[in-house]
Amino acid sequence: MKPIAYEDAPDAVKAVFDDIKSTRKVADVNNFWKYLANEPRMLRHVWESLKEVMGQGHLDPLTKELVYVAISITNNCEYCMASHGAAARAKGASEEMMNELFAVVGLANMTNRLANAYKVPVDEAFK
Amino acid sequence: MKPIAYEDAPDAVKAVFDDIKSTRKVADVNNFWKYLANEPRMLRHVWESLKEVMGQGHLDPLTKELVYVAISITNNCEYCMASHGAAARAKGASEEMMNELFAVVGLANMTNRLANAYKVPVDEAFK
Amino acid sequence: MKPIAYEDAPDAVKAVFDDIKSTRKVADVNNFWKYLANEPRMLRHVWESLKEVMGQGHLDPLTKELVYVAISITNNCEYCMASHGAAARAKGASEEMMNELFAVVGLANMTNRLANAYKVPVDEAFK
Amino acid sequence: MKPIAYEDAPDAVKAVFDDIKSTRKVADVNNFWKYLANEPRMLRHVWESLKEVMGQGHLDPLTKELVYVAISITNNCEYCMASHGAAARAKGASEEMMNELFAVVGLANMTNRLANAYKVPVDEAFK
Amino acid sequence: MKPIAYEDAPDAVKAVFDDIKSTRKVADVNNFWKYLANEPRMLRHVWESLKEVMGQGHLDPLTKELVYVAISITNNCEYCMASHGAAARAKGASEEMMNELFAVVGLANMTNRLANAYKVPVDEAFK
Amino acid sequence: MKPIAYEDAPDAVKAVFDDIKSTRKVADVNNFWKYLANEPRMLRHVWESLKEVMGQGHLDPLTKELVYVAISITNNCEYCMASHGAAARAKGASEEMMNELFAVVGLANMTNRLANAYKVPVDEAFK
After folding, report:
1. Are the beta carbons of E73 and A107 separated by less than 8 Å?
2. pTM (2 decimals)?
3. F99: nearest CA in chain C?
């Protein structure tokens, strides 16, 4: 599939692109949106849910970007590591924070499997 | 494998259990540590690395617990969801924060696959 | 490991290659088979099971290719996305169908994690 | 987290529940929606996107349920296997079709790893 | 789906059950085979490939069971952990060996993600 | 993040690098360690646990490398496949052994999903 450029996009896609650009104050949308524009329904759903959930809310935006990076590493999604890593840095993540995040990701993936391997029963206190 | 109780544990295991209890100010260690005590070398390595990385550092401890929960959901580790969910709440996570975290986990797992499906090339700006 | 070309293959491998070529009416086998030929037992098992299951059966062949693509995206297997994506298109999948498939893959990966996160109990009606 | 019953739900949640019930012609919503109602924004986003993508479109609804089941097996989501398995059967999937689907899921998960293991390069014909 | 008992099985299934019983010198087949018998083609393919690959070969049978357990933990397949864990023990795995195996599984899942996170380039010496 | 060369490393990192080099009798450390040196705490934890677990123990070192390769294929970690594949070969794995390992990895990933799909209950004999 090919990316859809703004000038070639149908009106429904242009409207989403315009909203991304004005919300994020950027001159152009990232590659992710240009490819997702091949499926205009998902383009709108994904943008609307990300816009609502990733912005100001109960967790601060930087925390949410760090969570996004952690999941993208776990799932080995190179594009998502790059895009959300850049977003985390833009929102204030230092190199020390990113390195500590990587450490947590490594440890969680290890202890997830150790808990499986030993079939550890959930403590009463956690229920 | 069976859990190892404090009174039945070899000295090397007792020493780790004691350190967990005094560090966390708890009367007993969780099931995870009692099962992992079957492999005393890993018990020590896992505890020492968690103790050093999950405490005070470049990211605040609550953020790290939220990341842990997010990965545990992605990997479907029920024990780890329960234990780190409890830790997150103990460190101040409200129900609203947990719900928003779950939303981010869902969205990241969706967009990770959409980026794969379209083989989206990494934007120059992210490199 | 290196791919095994027809002319260099032992007879057991040649026999499988010949069957692939005559079944699929192609001049040469894909790279997957040339590499798998390094393990002649698996070459035969994989080919025989794919031949029997992916052809005419209870589900139509296109549906099965779409399922294959969906799993390959979920597992992030680039080769399999390419080969089964090509097979799906050869069997009639339009661009609109592929885009809708990608949408389903994204949604399923999202709701799988939301169901985990909330530990949703299975409804009586589904049992 | 606890499920939210219709009578206890805020208006925004009730509106989504009503739409699910009238769209699907059911007396009550499944557990998934009652739990997701803890996060009303995601409840609405997930419902709206599933409603639009899983209904009539470029792929027939049964095919999309089968894809959903296949991904849920791959990710080991028990709730999703049960709910989308029931939906697939309600839309016409026979036992033979479900068994053949399971076969495809097994084969795809096998060949995904074999392609990784041999680092098979993508054939020119697939590009 | 329900398990298929020997006495209710069609002849093609009975033949596979008989071969499993005589090869493994057991009075009855495990649950896995009774469920897989719902799809007689896969029953035969899976049995024939396991029989050929898991027995005597280039790797000793115990090593192959340990690999099977390691993958089953990584994928969180409880049935497979139980059945291949039992097979490993039957073939000579001690508790110390199982504990060390679990340690390796934990470490590999950690370093897999650390290598992803840092996007470590493959050393020339490994190519 | 950039790799840390020995001459630019802080003393704590140099000490780990020196220990890796003398333990493994190599002139320089692999890329993995140079990148992980960005997080000196994890560098030390990962090295100390690998050093203790992957060496002589209850399982022979080659078996542990094969397990490592199997998990790395399952998780699709290209760097880890390359580095532990090289280590397995250095410890005596023949091409026939690697091919048989790949076969086991494929089969385990298939039967893990078949056991999930059929929700096979664990046999009494395995408990």
Report:
1. no
2. 0.98
3. C39
Contacts of E48 in chain C (CB under 8 A): 45
Whole-angstrom distance, CA of residue F28 vs CA of residue F43: 15
**Beta carbons of E119 and A78 less than 8 Å apart:** yes
Interface test with B, best of F48, F54, F112, F116 (most B CBs within 10 A): F48
Amino acid letter for position C56: Q
Work out the minimum CA distance from A114 to partner chain F, whole angstroms: 14
Give residue E101's identity as a one-letter amino acid code.
L
Per the CB < 8 Å rule, is D42 touching B76? Answer: no
Alpha-carbon span F102 to A65, nearest angstrom = 36
Distance to chain E for B37, nearest Cα, Å? 10
Q: Do domains F1-54 and F59-119 have the same CATH topology?
A: yes
Are residues F1 and E118, on separate chains, in Cβ contact within 8 Å?
yes
> What is the distance between the alpha carbons of residues D43 and C105, in angstroms, rounded to a whole number?
19
For residue D24, give every residue at least 6 positions away whose Cβ sits within 8 Å of its Cβ, in sequence order, or none. Answer: none
Cβ–Cβ < 8 Å for A20, A48: no
Which chain A residues are closer than 8 Å to E111 by Cβ?
106
- Do B102 and C110 count as a contact with CB atoms less than 8 A apart? no
- CATH class assigned to B58-127: mainly alpha
Cα F14 to chain centroid distance, Å, stands at 22
Q: What does the pLDDT average to over A23-41?
A: 97
How distant, in Å, are the alpha carbons of C69, D114, F104 from that of D111?
Answer: 12, 5, 12
Per CB-CB distance under 8 Å, the chain E contacts of F111 are 32, 46, 50, 80
Q: F59-119 is classed in which CATH architecture?
A: Up-down Bundle (1.20)
**CATH code 3.40.50.980 for C57-127:** no
What are the start-end ranges of the H helices in C1-127? Answer: 11-24, 31-36, 40-54, 61-74, 78-90, 95-117
* Per-residue pLDDT tens digits for A95-126: 999 999 999 999 999 999 999 999 999 999 99
- Domain spans in chain A, listed from the N-terminal domain onward: 1-54, 58-119
CA F11 to chain centre: 26
The answer to whether D43 and A55 are in contact (CB under 8 A) is no
In a 13 Å sphere around the CA of B11, the CA atoms on its Cβ side amount to 0
What's the CATH number of domain E58-119, 3.40.50.300, 1.20.1290.10, 3.40.50.9100, 3.30.450.40?
1.20.1290.10
| F106 interaction partners in chain C (CB closer than 8 Å) | 42, 46
List, in order, residues 6 or more apart from F3 with CB less than 8 Å away.
Answer: F31, F34, F35, F37
pLDDT for C127 beyond 90: no
First to last CA, chain C: 47
Predicted local confidence at residue F9, as pLDDT: 97
F89 burial via Cβ count (<10 Å: 0-12, 13-18, 19+)? middle
| Two structure tokens written together for F125 | 């004999």
CATH number of C1-54: 1.20.1290.10
> Residues near E82 by Cβ (< 8 Å), separated by ≥ 6?
F122, F123, F126, F127
d(CA B31, CA B37): 10
Q: Block means of pLDDT (10 residues each) for chain D, length 127 residues?
A: 96 98 96 98 98 96 98 98 98 98 98 98 94
User: How do residues A35-45 score in pLDDT, each as one tens digit?
Assistant: 999 999 999 99
Segment F63-79 mean pLDDT: 98
F1·A103 Cβ contact <8 A: no
Whether A45 and D41 lie within 8 Å, measured CB to CB: no
Which chain F residues are within 8 Å of E74, Cβ to Cβ?
71, 74-75
